Amino acid sequence: MTITETLNQIFCMVFDDDAIQIHPTTSANDIDGWDSLSHVNLVTTIEAKFNIRFTQKELLKQRNVGDLIADIERKLAA
């Protein structure tokens, strides 16, 4: 399973919507209910699934799913 496929499953679970299909350009504006609380749930679920931790600086720079995937790939390669 690719990082994008795993992330898509996480997005569907966190936002309780099996119809979500994420893309690198997907942002909070594209998903109903993506607010600050759901973002915290999303980040903690991603960190647990991939066994990684994001820094505050990384989180502030992430503007879309593509940025998120790039950070995950970089952390998994380290």
Overview features:
single chain, 78 residues, mainly alpha, 4 helices
| Count of extended strands | 0
Approximate strand percentage: under 5%
Q: Could you spell the SSE succession in H and E letters? A: HHHH
Q: What would you call the structural class?
A: mainly alpha
How would a crystallographer describe the biggest sheet?
none
- Our Rg estimate from Cα atoms comes to 11 Å
State the separation between the terminal residues, measured CA to CA.
Answer: 20 Å
Low-pLDDT regions = none
Helix share, percent:
55-70%
Shape, per Cα inertia axes: globular
Average pLDDT confidence is 96
Q: How many separate helices?
A: 4
Please provide a written account of the structure.
The structure is a single chain. This protein has 78 residues and is mainly α. 59% of the residues lie in helices and 0% in strands. The chain is built from four helices and no strands. It is globular, with a radius of gyration of 11 Å. The mean pLDDT is 96.
How are the SSEs placed, and which strands pair?
Elements (H helix, E strand, L loop, with lengths): L2 H12 L21 H15 L5 H6 L3 H13 L1
Helix pairs in contact: 1-2
Concise description?
The protein has 78 residues and is mostly helical. The chain has helices at 3-14, 36-50, 56-61, 65-77.
